[in-house]
Amino acid sequence: MSDGFRQEARAWLEENLTGEFAAARGLGGPGREHEGHELRVAWERHLGAAGWTCLGWPKEYGGRDASLDEQVIFHEEYARAGAPARVGHIGEGLIGPTILAFGTEEQKRRFLPPIRSGEELWCQGYSEPDAGSDLAGVRTRGVLTGGAWAVTGQKVWTSLAHVADWCFVLARTEPGSQRHRGLSYLLVPMDQPGVQVRPIVQMTGTSEFNEVFFDGARTDEANILGAPGEGWRVAMATLGYERGASTLGQQIGFRRELESVIETARRTGAAEDPVLRDRLVRSWLELEVMRFNALRVMTSLSAGEPGPEVSIAKLYWSEWHRRLGELAQAVQGRAGLLADGAPYDLNDLQRLYLFSRADTIYAGSSEIQRDIIAERTLGLPKDRAPRAAETHRASP
Fold this sequence. Notes:
By secondary structure, this protein is α+β, with helices and mostly antiparallel strands. It is built from eleven helices and eight strands. The radius of gyration is 21 Å and the shape is globular.
């Protein structure tokens, strides 16, 4: 059964990554989301039309009811084929599973089909200037008036907001509430007068992150997941999906990056250095461990809401990726210190090094993840100074 599925996926990818889509191979990923966006949107819709998106979703909502093995196989074959980074991963991997878990039947019928088909793209409205890893400190307000929620506030580090059609927003809807209470999970359309998006230029020179300003932006009263005031619970479930199944898709890019680092090390002779060779081998082994840990997290998610495994996974991949960026610079030697051209033309490995510096901060800093693991898994006492117990994702 699995062999047949693998052959089907491999044959379809080989047949379809040709013609206009041949140029999409290898495009996109962290720090490179600007690459071939329109072409990758077309590819996303092509995938959806052929039934290769949202594989694990129930058939009644457009999925295949694919098993965990089949989902893993598809990710592996997708990576092997050099297919482009997905532009719909926030919709398929984060909000889609959340709607399946918490949405009404009407919400499922409205929002899931355009996610599956690639017709609507999503972004995540969690982070704020004063609410980073401490997500419970959000100040964005949602006021119910005239049959609609009016949303006012600022979100930051919002990945792909400049191309998104919808944003799932964590907002404070109960006046005077504090911390985890009084929050609601709202689904807000981006194309309206009350929404302003400002790109944030990163040290890679690209701008996939954004500030988003809501000034009375409106969304229908029905566009809320869960009941008013239950937003924290829904938001934490989203984080579990993000750090579970979607990390398998993320690892497509990781494997491609590692292969590029190894190839560069061979070309420059760095692979002959015993210390660098040891670091290359260690990176490969750790990526294999990462894959198996992601499968473990997916198994736990299928049994219920996320546990501490999601924090272990986030801590692991972010620290690994930062080390890979440092290794990418090391194997280039002195050439890695020079831009390829003016004014700031970076190669892929330089971009990897710069972008991966942020990995241990966004999506919940490593310090916060270690606190969660210590307190919830190991049963150690909490810090005397209160710190956030949960964290969030602010990036792709």
